[in-house]
Amino acid sequence: MADESEKVELEEGTLLLALEHENLEEFRKTFLDQHPYDQAKFFIKIDAELRMIVYQFLSPNEMATIFENIEIDNDEYEMYLAEMDPTFAAQMIGKMYVDDAVDVLNELDKEQVTNYLKIMDDEAAEDIRELLHYEEYTAGSIMTTEYISIHAHQTIHSAMQILKKEAPNAETIYYVYVVDEDNKLVGVISLRDLIIHDDETMISELMNERVYSVNVMEDQEEVARKIMDYDFLALPVLDNEKHLLGIITVDDIVDVIDEEASEDYSKLAAVSDVDSIDRGPFSAARKRLPWLIILLFLGMFTASLIGRFEETLNKVAILAVFIPLIAGMAGNTGTQALAVAVRRITLGDFEEESKLKLIFKEAGTGLITGSICGIVVTIVVFIWQKDIFLGLLVGISILATLTVATIAGAFIPLIMHKLKVDPAVASGPFITTINDIISILIYFGMATMFMQYLL
Amino acid sequence: MADESEKVELEEGTLLLALEHENLEEFRKTFLDQHPYDQAKFFIKIDAELRMIVYQFLSPNEMATIFENIEIDNDEYEMYLAEMDPTFAAQMIGKMYVDDAVDVLNELDKEQVTNYLKIMDDEAAEDIRELLHYEEYTAGSIMTTEYISIHAHQTIHSAMQILKKEAPNAETIYYVYVVDEDNKLVGVISLRDLIIHDDETMISELMNERVYSVNVMEDQEEVARKIMDYDFLALPVLDNEKHLLGIITVDDIVDVIDEEASEDYSKLAAVSDVDSIDRGPFSAARKRLPWLIILLFLGMFTASLIGRFEETLNKVAILAVFIPLIAGMAGNTGTQALAVAVRRITLGDFEEESKLKLIFKEAGTGLITGSICGIVVTIVVFIWQKDIFLGLLVGISILATLTVATIAGAFIPLIMHKLKVDPAVASGPFITTINDIISILIYFGMATMFMQYLL
Q: Which family does it belong to (chains A, B) (predicted)?
């Protein structure tokens, strides 16, 4: 058995050739044998001309599978759809798993969505309409309605019949949900249990009545956290009256976790998004410039602050030498405290009462790290510059700066969280600037006050 | 139906009371009805005295379930095990899923491991020994040997018999692996397919021969990437001769993704690890100080570099005002480029040839962002200080700095990757210092050269 990835690579040539020669049979034979993710990778690699042939060679259903597995930027969906015949595109969307279909439609204009839904067959259109109105990043926006539900007063045998019938269309068949006559969730049973137990056992005897679920309005991060903690393969989504609306499966959650982690990371680095898609320098520059320009003006503000101490600087030029050191240390310790706070908030294990505790803890941490770094700096500067006053000035500045910067690093994301702003937004740039300002005020303030000892 | 999380919270009181009154029956009734993750959460919350009662109230098998679901720091495993009777502890480890058992044993001394394996029943000990020697962070270290395998010349009916028998012990029953007489992997079949199709169908007719797999030595990040991309619930692990050794399930991968993302994030923020466990300020300070001390000395080096330009500074004190701006901008743009490179390397979609392309792209991006920021700065400084030469000096410094810093940000992680060092290690501190140095050399170098225009 050759390695699967190698095989897929080898088949790329065959596929390209088949498309160029418009050899339908050869293309379909090789292509449809591949995993949908590999199909999607091939599809986004080829150019528009060849894609036009693919649209002719595949059915809407086959294209739907590709679209379910595609990993592209949101605006690229529109491009691909525009290339297709509108009827073909509408049929394809109708054939997709409804959660994926909604993801695609969410990227289009309202008008376009209405058009596609009009052409689509009614049942699919209705399923999609139901999901379309959920707000982004909520459980409702990532759930699918293609689950399997049974009733408590059935036997395993009759439940398995339903399962066999619905398996081809369900997103997962590994959990089966038990609902009452009002479609309220009353239990869950795993396929594992259905298989192990006797055919005549009643579902009510076997089902687990302690079902974890999420509300349809819940944040997707909460959902991800629950699935991760409890190692679920899927989680049911309920409305406020406990009606079963849909399910969220682990594969969608894996994407959420990856996205959210990338997002936190990107924000700490002050990039709008760090993705794997290869871009040209202009497109990359366009994405990074907004941050850089903001940071530039924040930096100018800091510069103007130093400018106010020009007189002090004129008298004791050596002070300038330590500006990057002090500002840098403030930035570093602030970022550390910030990262801890942001992660804790993201991870969600955060109770109201413990916020104050976090601030106190960070104040303590800042005081300890500040004292130690301050002592080290005092000694090093004294040895280097042979000036104990300069050493003390820099050392005490470091102590004060580190303490304040650490508290600020923890405090700001907590405030953001309170204000319902994603705390990760604040990260890198904001905290660094605040800490630059704090450190410069402390350093030059003290230097100006104790000028006579430095001259 | 009350919300499950609320119910668990209410039961906490019942459980505590039952333990305090040593009411075995009440405790077991409530506790064993909970989800293992909730059991684990309760267990790590209570104090040592009550834990001693739990060890008496539960069987090794029941404790094993808790330990499989526990989320604690690695050194805490040792503490809990030390509390238990050694025979009880050994039996418990023997009852755990073998991958989880190995995770626990990896945290202990060699001697302790040998002792536990000696007391344990032989079959369990052997399974564990087999997995213990795989290197950390490889596929082998996170796989489990509790999979289900069948042969191609069986019918669905006979395969289902095997499945029913092995289901209680297997980590997943949703994929069944098909092996030949040498235990080489030849195919895979999903439980979904087994259920949908006729009982008399031969496995060979139905199985998918294009099985994605990973080598036992492969990095766990690669495994995570594959499972995420292809939406697998499990992935088989093979040796170099394609023998089936074990499987890795999606729930373990979710943890890997979360860990790796946290790791990258932590390193960008220069903290050793950002976890959700609450620590005191001393413990937090101890974790952050090593980074801060390193950064402090790197900062002193930068300061000494500026010290060499003291004469220039003495003549034109205003130069000092722009040090944080220029160094800060270099740090920002470097971190952006670094984050993009690190994420791309972590995500694994990186071919040898494209490295040069990335560098060129980043050089282009740096030139574009540098030019725009440079022009903005020149104008602002000119308006503010009414000195076109100073404006040009700062502007050109920004242009040069941003270009070089962007290239450095992309180049350094690539070199790290080449040297087989985790590129995320380099991030924050390293890149910022290099860029501080570069920016100061450029800025003061130019200032000293064109001194006559500034006076």
A: Belongs to the SLC41A transporter family.
